[in-house]
Amino acid sequence: MKPHRRRKLYFLLFLLLSSGGAIALTLMALTENINLFYSPAEIVSGVAPVNKRIRAGGMVLEDSIFRSESDLEVRFIVTDLQGSEFTIFYTGILPDLFREGQGVVARGALNEDGDFLAEEVLAKHDENYMPPEVMDVIDQAHGDLQK
Amino acid sequence: MKRMVNRKQKTEPGGCALKMGNFFHRLGSPRPFYELSGVVLPVAGVLTLISLVVGSIWALGFAPPDYQQGESVRIMYIHVPSAIVAQSSYMMMGIAGVIFLIWRIKIADIALQCAAPIGASLTFLALVTGAIWGKPTWGAWWVWDARLTSTLVLFFLFIGVIVLRSAKDGSEAVGRATAMLAVVGLVNLPIIKFSVDWWFTLHQPSSFSLTESPSMPAEMWLPLLVMVIGFYLFFFFTWMYRVRTEILKREHRSQWVRSIDDV
Lengths: 147, 263
Description:
The complex is a heterodimer. By secondary structure, chain A is of the alpha+beta class. In chain A, 35% of the residues lie in helices and 28% in strands. Chain A has a five-stranded mixed β-barrel. The termini of chain A are far apart. The mean pLDDT of chain A is 85. Chain B has one domain. Helices cover 76% and strands 0% of the residues of chain B. Chain B has helices at 2-10, 16-27, 30-62, 76-103, 106-138, 146-165, 172-185, 188-198, 218-250, 255-262. Mean pLDDT of chain B is 87; it is low at 1-14. Chain A binds chain B through residues 5, 8-9, 12, 15-16, 19-20, 23, 27, 31, 34-37, 39, 57, 94-98, 105, 120-135, and chain B through 64-70, 73, 76, 98, 101-103, 136-140, 143-146, 180, 183-184, 186-187, 191, 199-202, 204-207, 215-217, 219-220.
């Protein structure tokens, strides 16, 4: 490679590395804001601020959904499956994918009692795709095992 | 001046290796590229048509629904290929930018310029299909999570390249500035790719990786693969078409372009 081209190559590498470095540092400084939600462990341990609009996420605990008889109020427990869990209160229509064992992200505020009052509940989809028939077969196999 | 350079290359002596290098070198200049691409273009067009038609019918008509998302899973067959090819086209633009800045190869500038509008359209398609899928699945059209935001940044980078390159004075200086922007924007690609692993995002992690088997049955990923190939071919076809047009535009004064007009 000719010297003046080599110089340009080095310049471009320098440009890429320095802009990459600058952006990496910025992103690291902003990590708190880039994470879309606080995990159950962060909610329980008090890392998440109280009475401030935040997002909280986790898995909906099995058999923890209680719906009101008269209106759209719903209460459920969100867990990280590692011992940290908290309760979310929400009034409104839940997304199609909302169900027990499903990941959710809720927007709202944490009160002093450690309960989360949600204004919006989003269902998080995972990376697994399956035809319904396959899921039925898997469910059946589970049922057979439990018998 | 350009014609003189061409003539010099033709008379260069050398062995097989040199001839190979010569081949690529010649491809870097407009005329040989135009001639070769004229042969490749119809083939690419036919392949694009076949794979997109087969892929669409397979994906929209015969692939199974998902156990959770139901029929809306079919949006994936447009969303995923457009997002993949959009990122690849940015990668290509960045590499073209590097080549143009270091070696001053004209065709690299043209390649960069012609890829930008296609990449922007594909990114837009990925954003729109993602929003349409997100509403029923997540419960929101848009969320400011890392994956979605970095993809929006990709869209703005494409727009930036288009706007900069179309600056009134379309000189080489403008081309260099555009190439510089394209190169710096490469930093965004790993951010898009790894955003779902580095941060908590609403967007799910990738269902595919090089090391593990896909978390999706073959009757879903096979049509998806056909669609991805189809989108790549579509990009290649439209890109080459644009490059040829741009070559004619830039070289309209030269002898060989005029002789085409005569035919």
